[in-house]
C-alpha cells in the first residue's frame, strides 16, 4: 500500500534552485513535491472553472489532518502514508510538538521543517527517532541549538542538512554532525557563530557535493580545512574578493586539480585566474599551489598580485607552454626563475608563449630570455625597456602583428617579440642590422608622433 510513491534509499535529494532566494528552502523531498504538485494542479483546475475530484489518497490525508487529535501514533501505517500525513500537517502549519510525537519511529525519510514556527531542541528527539531511514532534514530559521544536533548522530544515512538562518548553532554544533559521512548537501547560510576553526570538523564529510556558507563572516581562512573534499561540486560563498577567504577558495580549486592529475583524470589543462583581486600575502598561498600541477599547459594570471617570489612556485611545470603575466608587479628578477633551474635544464623547458607586458621590466636582466630556447612569442610591451636591450634581441624570424616582433640570440625558434611603446630610438635599432630577414617596424608611439606632424 502506497509503495508506488516510496522514495528509494539511494535517491539523491533534489535542490530547488529556482526558489533558493525566494522561500529560503534548500531542499524538498520527493514525497512533498508529489503532494505539492497535486495541490497545485487542483488550484489550476479551479482557476479554469473545472472542479477535479480529489483522489482517495488525498481524501484520507485530509481526513487525518482534520482528526489529528484522535491519533497518538502513526507508526503502524506504511511509511509512504505517514510521510504524506506529516507533509500535509507541515504545509497547513497544523503540526505542533504534541502532534509531532505521533510520528515517533515512523521511519520517515524527509522532514522539511524549514522556517516552521516553534521548532526547537525539544523536537529533535522525535526527528532523530526516524533513525537510519532519515535522509534529509530542513531546520532553517529554527531555534535549534548545538545541543539539538546531538541526537542526529544516530541518523547515519542522512544525505542533506539545512541550517540556514540558525543563529544558535556554532562550531560545537558542527562537531556533532562530523561523523555523518553520507551527507552530500550541507547549508549554513547567514550564520554569525561558525568560525574558521569550525570548518575543520567537516574534513570527515568526504561525500559532500554541495556546501553553502554564504554570508558567514566568521569562516575567513577556514576553507583550507576543506582541501580533502574532492567530490565537492558546488560551494556557495559571498566574500570580499580582496579578503583571504577568496584566496583559500582558489587554493581549494588548485588542490582539487592536483588530485585529478594524480589520479590521471586530466592529461592536460589550462587555468585562467586573470584579474583576481587578492592581497600580496594571500597570493603567496595561492601561487604556492601551482607547483603540483605538473600537467598544466596554459596559465593565465594577468593583472594579479603575483610577485617575483610567487613566480618561483612555477618551477617544475615541465609541460607549461603558455604563461600570461601581463600587468603583474614582477621585475626582471623573475626571469631567473623562468629561464634556468640549474646549469643544464630550463625551468620551463617547453614554454612557447610568454606575456610580460605592462610589468616592471627594465633593460637589466633581459639577457636571461636567451635560456628560453623554445620560445616563439614574447610580449614585453609597455615596459621600461630602451634601445640598449636590443643588442640581446636578434634573429627575428617573422612578424605576425602590427607591432615590432623580435628575437634574442639563442632563441632560434622565436617568431615574435612585442616591444610596443617601449623607449626604442634609432640608435637602438642599429643593433638589429646585419640579418637576412624581412621585418616591418611599427611602434604605436612612433605612428602617433608622425600623426602630430
Polypeptide structure, described:
By secondary structure, the chain is an alpha/beta fold. The chain has helices spanning 30-47, 56-66, 79-91, 97-100, 124-128, 171-176, 244-262, 280-288, 308-311, 334-339, 426-429, 444-452, and strands at 110-112, 136-138, 160-162, 185-187, 210-212, 234-236, 269-272, 296-300, 322-324, 353-355, 377-379, 416-418. The chain is built from twelve helices and twelve strands. It has a single domain (111-260, 268-451), classed as Ribonuclease Inhibitor (Leucine-rich repeat, LRR (right-handed beta-alpha superhelix)). The radius of gyration is 32 Å and the shape is elongated. Mean pLDDT is 74; it is low at 1-6, 8-44, 262-268, 395-412 and 434-453. The strands form two sheets. The protein has a six-stranded parallel β-sheet with strand order 1-2-3-4-5-6. Helix 2 packs across helix 3 (79-91) and helix 7 (244-262) runs parallel beside helix 8 (280-288).
List the helices and strands and how they pair.
Layout lengths: L29 H18 L8 H11 L12 H13 L5 H4 L9 E3 L11 H5 L7 E3 L21 E3 L8 H6 L8 E3 L22 E3 L21 E3 L7 H19 L6 E4 L7 H9 L7 E5 L7 H4 L10 E3 L9 H6 L13 E3 L21 E3 L36 E3 L7 H4 L14 H9 L1
Helix pairs in contact: 2-3, 7-8
Keywords: Membrane, Transmembrane, Transmembrane helix
InterPro entries: FBXL15_LRR, Leu-rich_rpt, Leu-rich_rpt_Cys-con_subtyp, LRR_dom_sf
GO cellular component, one term: SCF ubiquitin ligase complex
Amino acid at each position: 500500500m502506497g509503495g508506488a510513491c516510496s522514495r528509494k534509499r539511494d535517491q539523491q535529494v533534489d535542490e530547488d534552485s529556482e526558489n533558493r532566494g525566494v522561500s529560503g528552502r534548500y531542499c524538498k523531498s520527493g514525497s512533498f513535491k508529489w503532494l505539492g504538485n497535486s495541490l497545485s494542479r487542483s488550484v489550476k483546475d479551479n482557476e479554469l472553472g473545472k472542479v477535479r475530484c480529489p483522489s482517495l489518497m488525498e481524501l484520507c490525508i485530509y481526513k487525518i489532518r482534520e482528526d489529528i487529535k484522535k491519533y497518538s501514533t502513526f507508526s503502524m501505517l506504511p511509511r509512504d502514508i505517514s510521510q504524506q500525513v506529516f507533509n500535509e500537517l507541515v504545509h497547513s502549519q497544523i503540526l505542533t510538538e504534541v502532534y509531532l510525537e505521533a510520528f515517533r519511529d515512523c521511519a520517515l525519510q524527509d522532514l522539511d521543517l524549514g522556517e516552521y514556527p516553534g521548532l526547537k531542541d525539544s523536537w529533535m528527539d522525535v526527528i532523530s527517532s526516524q533513525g537510519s531511514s532519515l535522509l534529509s532534514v530542513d531546520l532553517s530559521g529554527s531555534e535549534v541549538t548545538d545541543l539539538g544536533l546531538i541526537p542526529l548522530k544516530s541518523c547515519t544515512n542522512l544525505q542533506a542538512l539545512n541550517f540556514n538562518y540558525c543563529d544558535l548553532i556554532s562550531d560545537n554544533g558542527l562537531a556533532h554532525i562530523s561523523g555523518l559521512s553520507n551527507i552530500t548537501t550541507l547549508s549554513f547560510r547567514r550564520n554569525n557563530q561558525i568560525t574558521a576553526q569550525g570548518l575543520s570538523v567537516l574534513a570527515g564529510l568526504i561525500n559532500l557535493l554541495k556546501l553553502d556558507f554564504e554570508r558567514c563572516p566568521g569562516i575567513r581562512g577556514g576553507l583550507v580545512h576543506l582541501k580533502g573534499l574532492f567530490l565537492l561540486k558546488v560551494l556557495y560563498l559571498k566574500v570580499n574578493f580582496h579578503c583571504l577567504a577568496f584566496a583559500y577558495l582558489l587554493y581549494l580549486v588548485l588542490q582539487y586539480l592536483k588530485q585529478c592529475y594524480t589520479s590521471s583524470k586530466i592529461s592536460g589543462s589550462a587555468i585562467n585566474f586573470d584579474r583576481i583581486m587578492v592581497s600580496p600575502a594571500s597570493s603567496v598561498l595561492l601561487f604556492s599551489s601551482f607547483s603540483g600541477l605538473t600537467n598544466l599547459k596554459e596559465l593565465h594570471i594577468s593583472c594579479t598580485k603575483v610577485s617575483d617570489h610567487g613566480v618561483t612556485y612555477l618551477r617544475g611545470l615541465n609541460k607549461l607552454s603558455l604563461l600570461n603575466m601581463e600587468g603583474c608587479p614582477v621585475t626582471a628578477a623573475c626571469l631567473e626563475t623562468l629561464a634556468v633551474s640549474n646549469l643544464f635544464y630550463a625551468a620551463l623547458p617547453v614554454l612557447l608563449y610568454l606575456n610580460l607586458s605592462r610589468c616592471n621590466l627594465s633593460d637589466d636582466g633581459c639577457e636571461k630570455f636567451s635560456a628560453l630556447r623554445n620560445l616563439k612569442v614574447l610580449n614585453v610591451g609597455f615596459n621600461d625597456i630602451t634601445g640598449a636591450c636590443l643588442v640581446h634581441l636578434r634573429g627575428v624570424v617573422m612578424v605576425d602583428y602590427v607591432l615590432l616582433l623580435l628575437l634574442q640570440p639563442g632563441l632560434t625558434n622565436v617568431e615574435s617579440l612585442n616591444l610596443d611603446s617601449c623607449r626604442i630610438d634609432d640608435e637602438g635599432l642599429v643593433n638589429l642590422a646585419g640579418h637576412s630577414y624581412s621585418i616591418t617596424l611599427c611602434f604605436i608611439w612612433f605612428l602617433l608622433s608622425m600623426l602630430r606632424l
